[in-house]
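Subject: Interface between my chains keeps coming out wrong

I've been trying for a while to get a sensible model of this assembly. When I model each chain on its own everything looks fine, but I need the whole thing in one frame so I can look at the contacts. Pasting all components below, labels as-is. Any help appreciated, I'm running out of ideas.
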Amino acid sequence: MELTLLMYLIPSLIMFGCGIYGFLTRKNMIAMLISLELMLNAVDINFALFNRFLYPGKLEGMMFSLFAIAIAAAETAVAIAIIINVYRIAKNVDINQINKLKF
Amino acid sequence: MITNTVLVLVLPFVMFLFLGLAGVKMPRKTAGVIGVVGMLITTVLAYWVAIDYFMHHPGHEQISAEVDWLNFTPKLVARMGVLIDPISAMMLVVISTVSLMVHLYSLGYMCDHHGHAEKGFQRYYSFLALFTFSMLGLVVATNIFQMFIFFEMVGLSSYLLIGFYYSLPAANHANKKAFIVTRLADLFFLLGIMILTFSTGTFDFKELVGLGDMAASQRAAGTMDGLTFLGIPAVGWALVFIFIGGAGKSAMYPLHIWLPDAMEGPTPVSALIHAATMVVAGVFLIARMFPLYVLAPMAMNVVAVVGAFTAFYAAAVACVQSDIKRALAFSTISQIAFMMTSLAVSADGGQLVGGHEAGLGYMASMFHLFTHAMFKALLFLCAGAIIHAVHSNENDKMHGLHKFMPITSIAFLIGCLAIAGIPPFAGFFSKDEILVACYERGLGWGLWMSMVAGMTAFYMFRIYYLIFFWKKHEVHTEHEPSDQPWTMTLPLIILASISCVAGFLPFGKFVTYNGEVLETHMNWTVAGSSVGIALVGIALATWLYFKENPKPERMKNAMSGLWEAAYRRFYMDELYQFITHKIIFQGICKPIAWFDRIFIDGFFNKLADLTGNASFAIRRVQGGNAQSYVFVYLLGALLLAAVTGVVILMI
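Reply #2:
Try treating it as a single job with all components included. I did that and got this:
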């Protein structure tokens, strides 16, 4: 059986949906961060996919995935640092408790 | 030769930078001595340049250095250069001599009576050097643009030096007044330059006035033929505007109001800037543009009328002043007006008057500029010595100082005799030439200026007697007044000697409008009558003021209205105060400020309030719950996607 574009896109979409769901419902900031990574990975898959199927001779999409992975790694490091600092001050990582940044 | 002329300019500038930047690191006296030595070298170089010029190239202008500075268009270039011609060579001598005397004198004057130099001594010498540089740059300017720049720079250094005692409110008011009035006048100067350059397409004096080549100025004026505004030719407007610029610097009525107040500065500064050099910049400017003025009778008449009126007005005011520096300031205004008038009467209706002595007024004016610089600097430096001794400017704190300060007294007397026009002192020769030039223009001009010359003799001797005689001196301070240290006395002696002999210089051989030798003959009628008038003035002053007597008081009471008006300078300051405060500030500025506050500011304030209120109203959206933000964001993204999808499907 030939693998088509759609067959790849469906798992990617499911991953993205899980990411959104997790991000909106989990209260633990670490879990939210994991959900965020899930969304990013879904997007990376899409980049690679579209490059592979629509422009087989080119490499831009692949490169972009690699680039996004590197950025995601850096961003995760920053997010972890922020979460650790929040923990030191607030003694927990519950997003509902961290609501001081408002009007 | 080339290096010398440039060095004359560079040296004072280097002194300015050096004393201004490194001065604070050295003892005060050292800075002063360095300033004096620097000025001495400049003076020697300036004399060398002038003597070399008059020996080898008399009458021919020469541009010894010039660089392009601003290329406005390929043809219109503002240059910076050094131009040596008779009047600039003469001015080099005048400026460097007086400046050197003042540098030396200040070593003594700017100290308290224990001999310690005052605070800011280095700054003072640095500014003196800056002024000397600017003034030298002004006189050697090769083009009117360069002249304008240096015109501004002398104004700046004058401002800095008037306000030298910056902690005194009076000094601050005086320097602001001087700067604003001369700046206003310079605005007209700039307008004049613009009109002139617009038609002639050049800044250079060589093409504008030809420097002895009368045809050049005719060509320059010819480019303006047919251009008129309100029925007056453009060249007339340009020259009148340029004259207003000169009148501001030279304190001609009604722009004279800053000069008496400028006496708040240290006295040597008054001697250098406000008596001998900067205030004659206006005369120098008119002299520089003289060939063009000859071709514009209207402008020439304006100069003549303003000059003649100012001479009389300032002399009248000087007769009643009690502050000796103010009296000398008004005397300066009157004498500068003499020079202006002298320049202006040498032409009438586009032609030079006086037949084979044509251009006599020009020569006389420059001659008087030269002698006046010497004896007025002398008078001011004497006044400084007196003020230093009695710690007051008012003549009722003086009286009877002749016994205590004999050298100063004699020097002052020589200055008075010179300014009154008694032979053989310098002022006699130059003032006599001026009067001859006035009589050649018309009997009325001559009689008017002769009368002013008589008043000059009267008010100078009034000051002299009130300072040195009148009654026995009462010692007001803890120490008796006496002649001052040698640094202050030596300049007096040198300047007094120059005032005695300068009149015998054959000026007509060196300084004329066209560079040719002008043979002058003593006009015995005019000379005799002017000496007679001067003697009458002196006699009157002696009768009234030599010994204490009630006559002046009685005269003052008999004509109290006139006396009060003259003492208040005929209410010119009050008039200015009224015009600026009541008319300009109240009548024009206040409504404009109101409009600005209510409409312009009001509009933007309303805008800001609106934005602020709107933001305040919707601030509750920021609830602090991060996940709700994300949810809203998601909804927004889905909505956008839906809209985009619909739009694409519809297309």
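Reply #3:
Confirming on my end. The mean pLDDT of chain B is 86.
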